[in-house]
Amino acid sequence: MPETPRVPRGLEPGVIEERIRAYESFGIHRTGWEGDDRTSTWLRDVLAEVGVDGELERFKFPRVEYRNARLTWPDGSISGTPMYDGGFTGYGGIEGELCEDSDPDPFGKIMIATSAVRGDKRWTAPMALKHYQELEEQGVVGVVVPSGDPEGEVILRNAEHIKTPFNLPVLQVSAKDARRLASSLVMGGVEGTLEVDGERLQSNATNVVATVAGSDESLAPIVVMTPKSGWFTCAAERGGGIAIWLALAEGVAALGPRRTVNFVASSGHELHHQGLSHYLAARFGLVKEAAAWLHLGASIGARYPQARLGGSDPYLHDLATGAVRDAGVDHETLEVFEVGNPGGGEARNIAEGGGRYVTFLGGHRYFHSPQDTVDVAVDAENVARWGQAAWTVLQGMLDLPEA
């Protein structure tokens, strides 16, 4: 393989941290919220600064609006966040006796998922539709799911069933707030009111797309993708991928490649990848027509990482693992998937369509928590190492032989 071209300035740790702090400053990044829209404009502006023309591509999505999301009982009240792919109660809520999830007769009751804080993943699994449908069939009228990061702040579940939601209203609350329920659950027979007053409305959000045209139009393109939305400030969850995405766009523009490289920063990540689904639908056939996809997924370079990587086939898998090794990424914190396993990020959309991909993704200690901030969860030096690996992978993709 030819010598790797000069590393883009955007992969310097100082630039990485500056850009992630800018991203964090826009606030909550839920799909279609102000912070998400401001991110789109900012990404387009930064692309322009490095010589790449970006565009905002609008798409429709089911937006959840809620007025009240809370549980009240005689001794207290807890506010939280509804599961966006769950049901609603209407104004005033629904009443029922509070029970633990071990109750053998939950009919007509509001269930508190106490096992969730002990690690029972049924409550927060991405594909939890069947679990909540079974509870509804048992007569449960509503569910409260406590969860917590190391300090007990809430960790929200992605709404993977946003297009086919379940009917049961589910309230997500922080583990530290849920402790106030303990005495009432021990006493038994305590009545409560669960209110999840909201609805789903059709709204608009934006992806950011750009193309660096290659000199040889006969070559299949590469696509570099990263999600840009999430539940809170998402500094470590989304920031590393965004910073690397910008740096790769800068590097490719300076390189003047033979092969065209397309870039997409998609919204709708926490809503079953709504933005990427729109991007792919508008470009029918691109999944397989592209020479390869590079997915810059969650928590790249985070502090306290649970890093993962994968490749669709032996060649790309070896390319990715070698690049990460050579970049000095800590292998003690790295899980390498078996060949062909895309994990749970946007690379799964590419795998489902039969495309070739490399995916960098993972979790971290404050994943999906309101405490996912630069100062708590970001390691710019580590992001830079992963960025170097991504740059190496991209060079390998640019040099792929034509099928």
What does this structure look like?
It contains twelve helices and 14 strands. With 403 residues, it is of the alpha/beta class. It has two domains: 9-62 and 202-398, Zn peptidases (Aminopeptidase, 3-Layer(aba) Sandwich); 68-200, Glucose Oxidase, domain 1, CATH 3.50.30. Strands 1, 2, 3, 4, 5, 6, 7, 8, 9, 10, 11, 12, 13 and 14 form a 14-stranded mixed beta sheet that branches. The two termini are 18 Å apart.
Describe, in short, the structure shown.
The chain has 403 residues and is α/β, with parallel strands linked by helices. The protein has helices spanning 13-25, 34-49, 129-137, 175-178, 182-187, 235-255, 274-281, 286-289, 314-326, 347-352, 374-377, 380-398, and strands at residues 54-73, 76-79, 81-82, 94-100, 109-112, 142-147, 170-174, 191-212, 222-227, 261-266, 292-296, 305-311, 334-336, 357-364. The protein is built from twelve helices and 14 strands.
Euclidean distance between termini CA atoms: 18 Å
Q: Helix tally?
A: 12
Query: Which regions have little confidence, pLDDT < 50, spanning 5+ residues?
Result: none
The CATH class name of the largest domain reads: Alpha Beta
Helix % is 25-40%
Total count of domains:
2
Shape: elongated
* pLDDT averaged residue by residue: 97
Main sheet?
14 strands, mixed
CATH homologous group name of the largest domain: Zn peptidases
CATH architecture of the largest domain: 3-Layer(aba) Sandwich
Task: Spell the H/E element sequence.
Answer: HHEEEEEHEEHHEEHEHHEEHEHEHH
